[in-house]
Sequence to fold (425 residues):
Amino acid sequence: AGVGGAGRGGRRDERGGRDERRGGPRREDREEKVGPRRDDPKIPEGITGAELDRGVKAELRSLPRTLADLVAQHLVASGRFLDDDAELAYQHARTARRLAARLGGVREAVAITAYLAEHYDEALTEFRAVRRMTGNHEVLAMMADCERALGRPDKALALTKDKHVRDLSEPTQIELLIVAAGARRDLGQTAAAVQMLEVPELTKRTRAEWLPRLRYAYADALAEAGRTDDALVWFHRAAGVDGDGVTGAAERAAQLEGLEFTDLDEDDTVVDDEYFEDEYDGESDATDASDELDEADELDEADDATDEVDEADERDDAYESDEADGVDDRVDETVESDDAHEAHGADGAGDDGADRAGDDVGEAAGGAGEADGGVSDADGDVDAAVGVDGSGASGDDRASGASGDEGGSGARGESVGREFEGGGE
Fold:
């Protein structure tokens, strides 16, 4: 027993040092040596990895810098191709998982891309890993849909009774309800499916993405149940809130109304092209005829406009001529009036000149009379002086001389006074 125990102990020691004896690399060494492969999908130009979500970036910090950058680039590329090429997005996500399989964000990317690429079995496995690694239960609806796609509606219904369902967000709960109703229909329980979908959210006013999907699922269940009129109403209501046409509710409503949407093949396209060419030629001829008529109408309108302009010019010329004649008449009248006025002024001026000349002649004659009177007075004084006797001649002469002096001096004084007054004036 002791040997056996020692032997078992020795084997445990051997198992513990197996990697070292065989020279195999440790797990940590293998992760450090991983890198790109030739068969990895090519990363599009312009992707650096910096576009990645902040939460996933935080997870990548546990990796070496070069490896983290490579994983980030593949995750960004996966998200970029998610809507247009789900399979290529899935290949990028798988590459990221090969490089960093222990990160929950990487496993979730693989799960979602596998689900969209219809790799349901692998997607279900990855979703389970996400729940276990991250505690994220929002993936329950996609897990249930995977079970249904794999032909296991019972397991899909079992997931709807998970204890974490009550904690899910409203969009996830609605999606899970739609999956559960589909599972009921898979089991042949159409009436139960219709009843499950008759929830208050059907008439809720919201722009949430789940509303057109919920109404479409309800309308589809009604149609399967044979309630065509009700289904038509709800297909229209689904189309009314499906602006992007994701559900195809409008097409379903048209089918129920007897309308069909057909895709044209190449032969139909050729025939239609020829038809449209013929129509185009006919329209061209009609257009040319219409253009000719339009040109004729435009010429007529131009002629009418020219005639109207000529008439307007003639009226303007006549009006301007009348105005010019009136101006000339007024100018002539003004000139004649001015000439008459000037002639009348000249006659008045001549009369005044004659009057002034007559006055000057009268004044000259008066002056001559006064001069004659002065000479007569002087003659009288001489005669009186000659009539006195000679005895008193010398005295009188002295007296007259004195008188003459005084009179002369007085006369000079008056003359000086007049000159002063004249100068003062």
Notes: Residues 266-386 form the longest helix (121 residues).
